[in-house]
């Protein structure tokens, strides 16, 4: 049931999106939204991708005005990546479309079912966050 729900959510979100970016590029935007000012190597590690592939993703995102590259304050050789104002606006619009698509589905559910779904999603988010935090801590321990 979880897989089916995730797939249906993906379809709904895909329909709500008129995104000029791929799923991989969208992941870059989400990471930069929360971790602006990271370098290419760190972004590639976060995405589980190679630096060259990540650089090409960022090249395309910079070309459409969603990503900015800036020289790092501490080292002119290092480049930091940021989500541009246009990139932030794009994510705001995209989230609004996705929320509208979800709201139309949720409006079809009786109030008791919506409440149960909310309770289940809250528990899921807590468990997923805990698991991701544990994975980050294990990764930090390995690289220390």
UniProtKB/TrEMBL annotation:
| Start and end residues of each HTH marR-type domain | 1-126
Q: Which UniProt keywords apply?
A: DNA-binding, Transcription, Transcription regulation
UniProt key word Membrane: no
> Where along the sequence do coiled-coil regions lie?
none
Please list the GO terms describing molecular function: DNA binding; DNA-binding transcription factor activity
The protein's name in its UniProt record: MarR family transcriptional regulator
Q: Please report the organism this UniProt entry assigns to the protein.
A: Streptomyces longwoodensis
């Amino acid at each position: 049931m979880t897989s089916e729900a995730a797939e249906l959510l993906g379809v709904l979100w895909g329909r709500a999106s008129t995104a000029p970016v791929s799923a991989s590029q969208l992941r870059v935007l989400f990471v930069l939204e929360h971790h602006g000012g990271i370098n290419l190597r760190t972004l590639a590690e976060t995405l589980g991708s190679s630096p060259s592939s990540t650089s090409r993703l960022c090249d395309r995102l910079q070309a459409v005005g969603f990503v900015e590259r800036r020289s790092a304050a501490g080292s002119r050789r290092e480049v930091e990546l940021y989500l541009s104002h246009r990139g932030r606006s794009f994510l705001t619009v995209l989230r609004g479309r996705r929320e509208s698509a979800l709201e139309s589905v949720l409006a079809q559910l009786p109030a008791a079912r919506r409440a149960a779904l909310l309770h289940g999603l809250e528990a899921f988010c807590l468990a997923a966050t805990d698991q991701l935090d544990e994975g980050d801590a294990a990764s930090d321990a390995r690289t220390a």
